[in-house]
Amino acid sequence: MRIGQYYEMEDKDIGRTWIVFPVLVELEAEPVITLDWEQTQYKWIKPSNLNRYKTPCDLALSLACVL
Fold first, then answer.
1. Selection from 8, 3, 1 nearest residue 58 by Cα
2. Phi, psi dihedral angles at 32 (to 5 degrees)
3. Closest alpha carbon to 59 in 7, 16, 2
4. Tens digit of pLDDT for each residue in 20-31?
């Protein structure tokens, strides 16, 4: 488990500042994923392929904080 340095992310669209606490954990087995109304699909990807997908704007920064 790795805990990265927290940082602030300003969301100008809604006028809010988020405090992000990046955490990376390694699981022993692939978890069962249950989606709700916010998501329609998911996909496991390698960090090196992150730029190929539309992700939250700070996901690359969060990942960099823990790798």
1. 8
2. -80, 125
3. 7
4. 999 999 999 989
Compute the distance between CA of residue 27 and CA of residue 5 in angstroms, rounded to an integer: 21
Q: How many domains does the chain have?
A: 1
First to last CA, the chain: 11
How many residues can be counted in the chain? 67
Rounded to whole angstroms, how far apart are CA atoms 51 and 39?
20
Q: List, for residues 24-50, the tens digit of each pLDDT value.
A: 999 999 899 999 998 888 988 898 898
- The whole domain housing 23 covers 2-66
Q: Per the structure block, which two tokens stand in for 14? A: 């809604």
Q: Between the CA atoms of 54, 57, 63 and 66, what dihedral angle is there, to the nearest 10 degrees?
A: -170
